[in-house]
Amino acid sequence: MWLIKGKETPVNAGTFMTHNGTGGLYYIFNPNNYDTIAITLEPDAHGVMPRGKPVLAAALVKS
Hints:
globular
């Protein structure tokens, strides 16, 4: 999962594995610091930049 603000370098918000096609993640962050959240299918958990195929991206609503 990646947190993104404009053209800045994405922040790795963690790697998680699914089980039987489902999964969950609990993560605390200030949504005002980012404008987009994205999930990618990564080849491993060692990336500092997205390298895998994007599967979800959504704008964050400002509070």
